[in-house]
Structures are given as C-alpha cells and as structure tokens.
Design brief:
The protein has 263 residues and is of the alpha/beta class. It has 8 helices and 14 strands. Strand 1, helix 1 and strand 2 form a beta-alpha-beta unit. The protein binds glutamine.
Length: 263
C-alpha cells in the first residue's frame, strides 16, 4: 500500500513549521508499514495532480498569497479545484485554507480572487487573531450553549493548535465547520466555528505544526485518503503516550481560558 502526497507551494506557504505536518503523516504511515511518497508542486511548475492521494498546503502571509494568484488562476488552480471535487484528501492550514475559498480581502484592501473550490470567503481585520487555542471536531452544539459553570469535556476529539491570522473566514451553507472553538478565536472570533470540512477537505487555522500533538486528527486525515484509495485497509492504533502527553499539557493550559475542563 502507498499514499502519494503533493505538498503545494512549499516555498511560499510554510509558516510556523507547517511542513512538519507532512513529516508527521509520512511517519505515522511508515509506523504502520504503509509507503508514502512526497512530491512538491512549486510556484509556476506544472504536474499531473491526478496521481496524488493527499494534498497539503501550509500557511502564508498576505504577500505570499498574492504571489500565488497567477498560478491559482491558471492550470494549477483548475487541477487543485478538480482534486477537491474528486474527493481527494486535503489538509490546508490558515493561508492555504483561505486559498480554497472564493476570495480574501486583505486588511490592506487588496482583493485576492482565490480558487472558489469551497463555499467560504475571508475578510482581513486590523487586529490579528493570535494565540494557542482549542476546538472540538464535529458539530457540538452544546459548546455553543456552555456558559458560566465549568463543563466536563471529552478530550478525545479536541484539537489544540496555534493561530495567527488577520483573516476572518465565513462559511457558506455548502460546507461544514471542522469543529467548534472551546477557547480562542477560530474562523472569525465571532461564530465559534473553526476551519472547514467539505468532502475529504480538512481546513484549519491551526499552525504548530498541528498534527504531531493531535495524533487522532492526523490518523483521521490519513484514513480518509486510504479509504478513498483502497476501500478497506489495516490501520492499527499506535502507541501515542508521548504525543498524548503533549496534547494534554497544552490543552489543560488552553482550557483555563474557557468554560470547560478535563474530567
Ligand atoms: N495571510 C493570512 C492572514 O493573515 C494567512 C496567515 C497565515 O497563514 N498564518 O489571515
């Protein structure tokens, strides 16, 4: 078995060590005896993207996102959009996540027409949304209603990450949030949503890199690529004591700023 990963625009989109997510995915596949080949698609380069199973796009400053506009408006943009529609797996972080949407109006008033692969758009704000944060995967309406008293929360589906973005992202009706914010800002600091889910696309504002200290999240992304390619497959659990200790350490600190605590 083999998963082929295409790392999109690594020279332009790689803030806060986001490329560490690609290394984490490769290692967690290798520990299970599954091969993983990683190629990069550089700005201005053309590749047949149909042969890849999983795409990664990291974060980037407004300037780097503007540099990519020409590539995204041509052949590469169309191929990426087709891969999304075809149900290929994507992990896109912050600027890379914004790029999948319709447009991004930067805080300097520059309007970037992006791929339009996902029903979302982003508007830059004067104050950057920065800090460690945590969110629970899947819709959890109870998170929205939690106020006042401390609520127990099951930590198994909570992602901890680091966010630093001026963009406020708003989701349309054709997509779902990746999760709901327990502490921090998420998509826009207002509606408690974080990231996006659409077909096999996982978009998030989580830098870090996010995957090493959220092993369940990494495995969920890998399983989506394996399921699409092979249907059924063997994917035994890994011994994640070290990873889970790091996760718990950060999460317990972040939750101090929330209505939640770990049981
Ligand atoms: N330039 C985008 C913003 O400021 C994305 C930033 C990032 O990738 N960290 O919102």
């Amino acid at each position: 078995m083999e998963i082929r990963i295409c790392h999109l625009f690594p020279e332009a989109l790689n803030l806060y060590g986001d490329r560490g997510n690609v290394l984490c995915m490769k290692q967690r596949l290798s520990w299970r005896g599954i091969d993983c080949k990683i190629d990069s698609l550089h700005v201005g380069e053309h590749k047949d993207l149909s042969k890849y199973d999983l795409f990664f796009m990291g974060g980037g400053q407004d300037f780097e996102q503007e540099v990519l506009l020409q590539d995204l408006s041509g052949h590469n943009g169309q191929e990426i959009k087709a891969a999304v529609a075809d149900g290929k797996t994507f992990l896109c972080i912050c600027g890379g996540y914004q790029i999948l949407g319709r447009h991004y109006e930067t805080s300097a008033g520059i309007r970037c027409e992006f791929l339009g692969a996902l029903d979302l758009y982003t508007i830059g704000g004067a104050k950057r949304l920065i800090g460690n944060y945590a969110y629970r995967l899947e819709a959890e309406e109870t998170i929205l209603s939690a106020k006042g008293k401390k609520n127990n929360i099951d930590s198994r589906l909570i992602v901890v990450g680091f966010e630093n973005h001026s963009g406020r992202t708003y989701l349309g009706p054709d997509v779902k949030p990746l999760g709901y914010v327990l502490a921090g800002n998420g998509n826009n600091g207002k509606d408690r949503t974080e990231g996006v889910r659409y077909k096999n696309v996982f978009g998030t504002y989580s830098h870090g890199p996010v995957l090493p200290k959220n092993p369940f999240f990494c495995d969920r992304i890998l399983r989506s690529a394996l399921e699409r390619k092979y249907g059924s497959f063997s994917f035994p659990p890994l011994e994640d004591a070290f990873e889970n200790a790091a996760h718990h350490q950060v999460l317990s600190q972040v939750l101090k700023r929330s209505f939640f605590h770990l049981p």
